[in-house]
Specification:
CATH topology: Rhomboid-like fold
Largest sheet: none
Strand content: under 5%
CATH class: Mainly Alpha
CATH superfamily: Rhomboid-like
CATH architecture: Up-down Bundle
Number of domains: 1
Shape: globular
Helix content: 55-70%
Distance between the termini: 13 Å
Number of helices: 9
Length: 207
């Protein structure tokens, strides 16, 4: 069954969640991240206390696997950019996934990104951009599988953008950027958490 491109997100959300719900997880994480970012701007020492630090992590400060997702090494420009990104991809992904799957992808990608950064790419730094990348990867794979898996018609520009996102992840990895692997992880998690098929009653056709 084909639906208009503008309905694919609603159709998938209905299949997973039974309907589109308020993106409460996105709002909560956005507010906490914004508050932490403002606190960091007022007290710059917070970046040193909560950002990625391999020495401190080795000394037992395990929270440095999580807290780098709430402070920003890009300071005000980085904070604004990452909050805008979270608002956009976060809302779309939560409409699609619901709360618990959203939390799995967001924090799964963020934790994975920090782990890879510590082990291989960039052991210092901070920001929620790698978690955002996971959500972006999830949205990209949803677009790419929607036609074959669900019979949904997706507009060509969206499909091209999804392919470009996948290629960007590969380029990022080749350039030793620490966003490529979390983005790919988001795509893999998308294959797991997205339903195998839509129920006919979940699909709302459009004129």
């Amino acid at each position: 069954m084909e639906v208009a491109a503008r309905s694919w997100l609603t159709a998938l959300a209905a299949a997973i969640n039974g309907g589109v719900k308020t993106p409460g997880a996105t709002i909560t994480v956005w507010v906490v991240t914004a508050a932490a970012g403002v606190a960091q701007l007022l007290h710059p020492v917070l970046l040193d206390q909560f950002g990625r630090d391999p020495v401190a992590l080795s000394a037992g400060q395990w929270w440095r696997m999580v807290t780098p997702m709430f402070v920003q090494d890009g300071w005000l420009p980085g904070l604004v950019f990452n909050l805008v990104g979270l608002a956009v991809v976060g809302v779309l992904a939560e409409i699609l996934l619901g709360t618990w799957r959203w939390l799995l992808v967001y924090f799964g990608a963020g934790l994975f990104g920090n782990a890879v950064s510590y082990a291989w790419l960039n052991p210092t730094g901070a920001g929620n951009s790698m978690a955002n990348a996971g959500l972006l990867g999830l949205l990209a794979i949803a677009v790419l599988v929607a036609g074959r898996r669900y019979g949904l018609h997706i507009a060509l520009p969206l499909r091209v953008a999804a392919v470009a996102i996948a290629l960007l992840a590969i380029v990022d990895i080749l350039m030793y950027d620490n966003h490529g692997l979390p983005l790919l992880l988001g795509m893999v998690l998308g294959l797991v958490v997205l339903p195998r098929r839509l129920r006919v009653t979940d699909v709302t056709t459009s004129a």
